[in-house]
Known about the structure:
mainly alpha, single chain, about 80% helix
Amino acid sequence: MEINGSRGPPLSQLSSLQLQGWVFLLSMLGIIPLAERLGFATEQLVFFTGPTVGGLLNATFGNATELIISIFALENGMIRIVQQSLLGSILSNMLLVLGCAFFSGGLVFYNKEQVFDKSAAVMNSGLLLMAVMGLLSPAVLYYTHTELHFGKSELALSRFTSCIMLVVYASYIFYQLKIQKGNHDHQNEAVGQNVESEDDEAPEISKMEAIIWLAFFTGWIAVLSEYLVQAIEGASIALKIPLAFISVILLPIVGNAAEHASAIMFAMKDKLDISLGVAIGSSTQIAMFGIPFCVIIGWIMGIPMDLNFQLFETATLFITVIVVAFMLQDGTSNYFKGLMLILCYLIVAASFYVHVDPQSIGEPPGV
């Protein structure tokens, strides 16, 4: 017998969905402080590795949360959640994190324009545009129905492109470690007195303690990420929030907690090059390493993870990269640029709240 003609789920299913909603919320809230502490442990390790290796470590462990969530989602066959969460991480870093850093630094130093290394920003913008090209080709191939073998050519192209992107990223790391090291040493000699006066900080924990804490926090994030992924579809229905919005907006904000705090802190100390390295460097690493890495892992696991992120998502990323590239081209920042980036992110968030992904499972009805 139906109660009041209800067409909704049974009470037992409803309580299960509510439980999943609470599991999702609590797991998400639990990951935030762990991500922040992971960032702290990484920063402590940087004292013992040097700035070049430290920058790569900061970006790698800063993106550890997103990669762990993606691997668990991939293991459960949630390909679209993997794609959208990685896409959201890039958008969050480029618009929200960088925007807040520019805005905060601009308010502290409102009487001048802050400056940063324009050449590094241009190189990262180029890598991000290459990543857009890699994502755009399979999507256009799919939607124009010009594949040699429908459904197979798209996947084969994605795997080939992913291997190319990983080679490019490995070359980029080699360039940073070998070529730019000499340039940075030369620059440090020129401004050595300023560096000595500003960088009097000392590590708060030892190298071994930093490594132990990194392993500990990474393990806890992995545990909570598994609960998070398993509850995400039920939470989408229980909370009446589109799955695309959760994947693109909420999950990356949780994963980028450490980057967000670090970028703002360094911008307020007028160390904008570090803020830019945290925000844009993390975006570049996700685009050129995280996404193709998940494609290769899916290939190994027999899961057809590809680079077809759908036209809506790919177009959003392309426009974002263009907007940020224009913001960075003159090598200066102020609070108004930061405000524009933050408002752009609000437009993106609103777009994904009203966007219904036809390939997602578990979209709440009527959203």
